[in-house]
Amino acid sequence: MVKVDAGGRDRLALAVLAQYRMATTEQMHRVIAPGVRIEQTRRRLAKLRSEGLIDRVTLPQAGRMRAWFASQYGVQIASEWPELREWPPPKLIADHTAARLRAGHALAVAETGLAFLQDARRRGDVCRPLDWIPEVYHPLGGGEAVIPDALLYYRSCGDGGSMLRAFVEVDRATMGPERLAAKLGAYARLHAYVPTPIGRPRPNFGQQPLEEDWRRRYALFPRLLFVLDGTGPTGIATRIQALRAATSALALSSFLRDVPVLAAPLTDLLRNGPSAPVWHPIHVPDQDHKVGWMQSRHA
């Protein structure tokens, strides 16, 4: 049996890599041990690698930066822990070539999660490393699904300690603005999706109506946050404009009434923190002033 420090940061480091998919040494340091020297984090990662629990790939285009990910053995061990049992384990990275090809988006998602985690630490709010959960599968029926880049759990210690949840889409400008805006329709379908159990017809008058599938997991539908990266101010403005143009669709009206949709550049999140007024409201297209993501209605 591998000697993982079940009471310390060995366990947390493996859990984070299993859940986040991939992270650099510096990102891992900021997640698991920001109060100590980074050399300690390097030694910890090297130890876990020597035990076969994690592996790494070197990114030649990023100053020989190392990106870490959990091995098949590491995912197998971590998936048995209670803190990870609620969500299915990630698809394993097949080899180092696959890891390099996935690194750009995976590391951007991890950096976005770190922005929320560090902001919570500064504010005294509650957002722990494993409260950032990438790629949570939400079925739509017929083999279709919505898979956000991440699901965020966040408890604000102000305003009565409200629990906030958000679906987060990290866009690196690898698809056109229209394809990005089309994601609004997918989330609207998830908001309205009511599964019909096999062998049971839809309820007639007087029967208990079936509920939307998302209510099994969430007290309220999570707000939707678009984090924009990989382009300059003009590209950011174009993508926000495309998102706002998509809100005119009649099929989105119920969804937009209930769910705040916000967009912000990743650079602004990293510079000012996600709680700062850096978010452009999409669900209110004629609202020009920016807000903090926790200021919108609906928890």
How do the helices and strands line up, and which of them pair or pack?
Elements: H1 9-20, E1 23-24, H2 25-32, H3 38-50, E2 54-59, E3 65-70, H4 72-78, H5 96-123, E4 132-134, E5 138-141, E6 144-146, E7 150-155, E8 163-171, H6 177-181, H7 183-192, E9 223-228, H8 233-246, H9 253-258, E10 261-265, H10 266-272, E11 280-281
Parallel strand pairs: 8-9, 9-10
Antiparallel strand pairs: 1-3, 2-3, 4-7, 5-6, 7-8, 10-11
Helix pairs in contact: 2-3
Proportion in helices: 25-40%
Model regions low in confidence, pLDDT < 50 over at least 5 residues: none
Quick one: biggest sheet? 6 strands, mixed
How many beta strands in the DSSP annotation?
11
Beta fraction: 15-25%
Structural class: alpha+beta
Q: Give the overall shape.
A: globular
Taken in chain order, the helices and strands follow as HEHHEEHHEEEEEHHEHHEHE
Number of DSSP helical runs = 10
Mean pLDDT level: 88
Strand order of the largest sheet: 4-7-8-9-10-11
Query: What is the CA-atom radius of gyration, in angstroms?
Result: 20 Å
Distance between the termini: 43 Å
